Amino acid sequence: MGEEGKVEERKRVSGEAQEKDIEIQSAAEERERAWSTPSLSTPKLSSVIPSIPKPSVATKTAPIVGEEGGVRTWKTGKLGLRVGVDALAAGAAGVLVAPIITMIDKGIIENASGRNTLGESLKNSTKELLLRPHRFLMSRPFALIFTLYFGTYFTANSIDTASSTIRNRRVTETTAGTSKFVATSTANLALCLYKDNRFTQLFGSSASSRPVPLPTFALFTVRDCLTIFASFNLPPLLAPRLEQKMGEELKKYVSAASAAQFLTPAAVQLVSTPLHLLGLDLYNRQGVRWLGQDSRTARVARDWAKSSVARMGRIIPAFGVGGVVNTKVRRNLMERLEG
Question: % helix / strand / coil in the chain, to the nearest 5?
Answer without folding.
Answer: 75, 0, 25
